[in-house]
Specification:
This protein has 131 residues and is mainly beta. It has a domain of 81 residues: Phosphoribosyl-AMP cyclohydrolase (Ubiquitin-like (UB roll), Roll). It is 11% helix and 37% strand. It is globular. The termini are far apart.
Length: 131
């Protein structure tokens, strides 16, 4: 039986991967309503901690995530969804994945380098605020 263990803020972590390639696209959070809507609709819903509200992936960009499979970990405190990613990009920066920076170091501290960082879309155009 599905019995998610939400944290003190009422959230579970959700790891989202591409169903075809296995690539990690993003990590986000779900509250009870986001999880229910994801299960009921077959599209990914999340809870934005920064905005303090529910959101359907792709509601602004059109880059909807159709859920192919959903799993929970052994403690039911994390969710993994495998999705078909519409539009080829999951990241709000316009990139395919939110994980487009690699960390490296050689004893002098950590450095970030760009990998797989080509933009699929221009976020300034997609997220333009009506004015």
């Amino acid at each position: 039986m599905l019995r998610p263990r939400y944290d003190a803020a009422g959230l579970v972590t959700c790891v989202t991967t591409d169903a075809a390639t296995g690539e990690v696209l993003m990590v986000a959070h779900m509250n009870e309503e986001a999880l229910r809507r994801t299960i009921d609709s077959g599209e990914a819903w999340y809870f934005s901690r920064s905005r303090g509200r529910l959101w359907r992936k792709g509601e602004t960009s059109g880059h909807v995530q159709r859920v192919v499979e959903m799993r929970v970990d052994c403690d039911q405190d994390a969710v993994w969804i495998r999705v078909d990613q519409a539009g080829g990009a999951a990241c709000h920066t316009g990139r395919r994945s939110c994980f487009y920076r690699a960390v490296s170091g050689n004893g002098d501290g950590a450095r970030l380098g760009f990998v797989d960082s080509d933009k699929v879309f221009d976020p300034d155009q997609v997220y333009r605020k009506p004015g």
